[in-house]
């Protein structure tokens, strides 16, 4: 289960309110910028490289077009076991109480143009949205530890899966994000929990079989 934390493992997120965006200045909000920063420690699972390749329904090279902050409100998706559903086995009253205590949170919706599709039912030239943890809300910049926000104009190799709302998220947050280098190789954007610091085009081809 690709869970941000056990408490929200089966809570999928629907965008509720676009706070602001500016192409070329990702996540820029009108008026003064954030006046405080809050760092979040996000509990992502760890994948070996071959596991990450197996789990990804979308593997692409893509260039960031723009980004914007959105407030997301969790919605409950039942599961068949405790690993899929952190509320598994609770009564309806207990589930309602637990869900009532789950707050909305801010994410960054990153729009990317696909350059190369290694896996997935999409084509080069199409655009997708990747949701990343963190953003600006009410003057506070929420930053996920070790998870840099994708930068407009930069190219990335992404290992991702789809969300019910049509957007995507990368496996284990920053672990599924590699920056594309000028020589065509790929470098992890975060040392942890990335399963490999560096990949060549040959490495990727071998992993994809």
Number of domains: 1
Number of strands: 11
Helix content: 10-25%
How many helix segments? Answer: 3
List low-confidence stretches. 1-31
Rough shape?
Answer: globular
| Main sheet: strands, sense, barrel | 11 strands, mixed
Mean pLDDT: 82
Structural class call reads: mainly beta
What do these coordinates show?
This protein has about 210 residues and is mostly beta strands. The protein has one domain (about 5-209). Helix content is about 10%, strand content about 40%. The chain is built from three helices and eleven strands, in the order ββαβαββββββββα. A hairpin with a 5-residue loop joins strand 9 (about 175-180) and strand 10. The longest helix has 9 residues, at about 90-100. It is globular, with a radius of gyration of 17 Å. Mean pLDDT is about 80; it is low at about 1-30.
């Amino acid at each position: 289960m690709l869970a941000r934390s056990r408490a929200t493992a089966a809570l999928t997120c629907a965008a509720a309110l676009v706070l602001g965006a500016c192409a070329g200045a990702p996540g820029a909000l009108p008026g003064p910028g954030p006046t405080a920063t809050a760092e979040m420690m996000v509990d992502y699972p760890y994948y070996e490289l071959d596991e990450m390749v197996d789990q990804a329904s979308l593997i692409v090279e893509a260039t960031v077009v723009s980004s914007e902050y959105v407030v997301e409100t969790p919605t409950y998706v039942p599961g068949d076991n405790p690993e899929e559903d952190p509320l598994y086995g609770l009564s309806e009253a207990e589930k309602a109480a637990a869900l009532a205590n789950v707050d909305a949170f801010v994410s960054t919706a990153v729009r990317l143009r696909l350059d190369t599709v290694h896996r997935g039912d999409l084509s080069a030239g199409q655009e997708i949205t990747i949701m990343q943890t963190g953003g600006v809300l009410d003057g506070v910049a929420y930053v996920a530890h070790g998870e840099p926000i994708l930068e407009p104009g930069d190219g990335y190799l992404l290992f991702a899966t789809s969300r019910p709302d049509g957007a995507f998220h990368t496996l284990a947050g920053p672990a599924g994000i590699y920056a594309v280098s000028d020589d065509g190789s790929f470098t992890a954007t975060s040392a942890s929990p990335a399963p490999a610091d560096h990949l060549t085009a040959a490495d990727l081809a071998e992993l994809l079989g």
